[in-house]
Amino acid sequence: MSPLLSPYLMKKIFLFIFLFLFSSCSHLQNIKIKEEKILPFSLKYIDDFNDGCLPNLLGGKMTVEKEAPSELSYFYDKLDTFDQKGYSLKLKYRLVPQKKADLIIDLNDLDISRAYGFSFWIKKIDGPKIEVMLKDGEGREGKVFLDIPSQRNWQKVSLKCSDFPEIDFNRLKELRLIFSSLDRFIEGELFLDEFFFFGPEHLFFESIKDNLYGFPTVKKLNKKYLLNRPDEVLLKEIARDTWLYFKNLVDKRTNLPVDWIDLDENKEYRIGDYTSPTNIGLYFLAIVGAYELGFITRGEALERVEATFNTLRKLPRWRGLFYNWYSTTNLQITRKYISSVDNGWLSAGLIVLRQAFPEIEPVCTEILQGMDYSTLYDPVEGKLYLGYELNREPPVPTPYHYGQIATEPRVTSLIAIGKGDVPPEHWFRIYRTLPISWTWQRQKPEGKYREYLEIDVFEGYYKYKDLKIVPSWGGSLFEFLMPVLVLKEKELAPRGLGLNNENVIKAHIDYALSEKKYPVWGISPCSTPDGRYGGYHEYGIADLGSKGYTDEGIITPHASILAIDYFPQEVIKNIREMIKLYELYGEYGLYDSLDVHTKKVSSRYLCLDQGMLFVSLANYLTKGKIRDYFHNDPIIKNVEYLLSMEEFF
């Protein structure tokens, strides 16, 4: 009886067969994409045309260039498609001898360096001479002539990357199809569909990984080693490992940190190759923290910051404010939206930088002064808009505001006031609780009115058992505690925000350990261990929020470590328990989340969550050095009184 072939060997056989067929012919006919996907390689689509519009799936455009009197035009066609769904691309051409016409597909600086080649489907009868040209970021061009027989069926054209030896596949600018006629006038039409690159498993991941300074090679670390460390040594070990995210997961060309990586062994490894102003701000804070902890030298810190500044100068902005998402590889704006809270956290990073490293103060100040928060302020409501939508003309603010004090945008509000962009009374026009008349909220708030800066402020609160709490929107620790990365609320607001933070942490610990009987605590928005909700979801304790996020037993380490300055022993005990009970620790520190019901652990590292975790540890281990830098700045000194004057309960 013959032994069964292992899955690994079967994959190797399939791959050998594919490469043999591929190397034997310049075009492969009538091979279905679904059959292709069983082979051990993956696809990166340029466009399948199924949505019938631009941009393409790489965010690029499509244009036509022609030498008159030749003509070329394209249309989206739903009657004749390769896979009988969506649209194909229909081309109409009128070509005179020696005059060409080009269809240009923008590849948007695609990094596809691990690809074997690329393919597309074509349907034509007779028709023009066709050349394929690739152009890279340095302007180098490579051409291949296609010999495609005329027939009424769809045919697949496959070209090897090695057919274009001149081209750097780390950065592709455009793909051109060049149509021409040698000796006679021709006119007609043809159809195109399904443009994609193909290569090994994790094709796109492997290509993008080339751009980064480093990447994890070990998925899990020895938990016994960690658990045997003394408390302060354990915390410094976690900090050192977490710093590797910011040391390595940064694009070498743009010096921007990527948004996330996913190391799930059961799926294709992935990289979120885009970033936000918040990520950049946290990266700056992490650089300062790494320097203060002795992980990098002052020279290394400055080199990193200045390299990122070189990119910030190139990024398109609106009234000095940064867009919400940029590609880390090509700096493309992925959405024309300006976010108030995200710009606030970038500003916070710049403020800390200019205090920690005076030699870069002029650059930090130039960027800060250019960031105009007045345009994000609604003087009627006295609150900041969530942001501005710039895909309309003229641009319009969002119809919603950041309306609650116990949420992470309060840092933006203080910076905007400290800069002089918005008036001080803005601070007291933000709701403590929502108005009592808003009956849809989770609890009817109690409290009384107090006057600050001639404004009557309802100092309302919710109750959790015997604790009084000014609620956040969702009831998550992230909303309440992210501001303490830079704000001295514990010291300056002992009867206000500082006291509220303390009560919230007590409530979270009690809810998780006593009420729900979870083995660990720390509920906040985070990755979903089972991949639901697109891989990320908002979690919280509903009764601590005006709207209230759901609790599904998902715990995230960063939420616990945010509380370390208030309850260090409880936090350390909690982190030890997480490491002991779950396979939660990897080469770059604690993974993003765990499910107490299934014990499943997320395989993701997120820039946002790693940033909050690292900066919290850096503050704790340096006795608040990052907060000191923030409060030493005149922008924040101008507004410290707003924190100190308030009494919540």
Short description:
By secondary structure, the protein is an alpha+beta fold. Strands 1, 2, 4, 5, 7, 10 and 12 form a seven-stranded antiparallel sheet that branches. Strands 15, 16, 17, 18, 21 and 22 form a six-stranded antiparallel sheet that branches. A hairpin with a 4-residue loop joins strand 19 (377-378) and strand 20 (383-385).
Detailed description of the structure:
There is one protein chain. The chain is of the alpha+beta class and 649 residues long. It has two domains: 29-204, Jelly Rolls (Sandwich); 211-644, Alpha/alpha barrel (Glycosyltransferase). Helix content is 31%, strand content 26%. It has 20 helices and 33 strands. The strands form nine sheets. Strands 1, 2, 4, 5, 7, 10 and 12 form a seven-stranded antiparallel β-sheet that branches. Strands 15, 16, 17, 18, 21 and 22 form a six-stranded antiparallel β-sheet that branches. A hairpin with a 5-residue loop joins strand 17 (321-327) and strand 18 (333-339). Helix 5 packs across helix 17 (607-621), helix 8 (340-356) packs across helix 10 and helix 8 crosses helix 18 (625-632). It is elongated, with a radius of gyration of 28 Å.
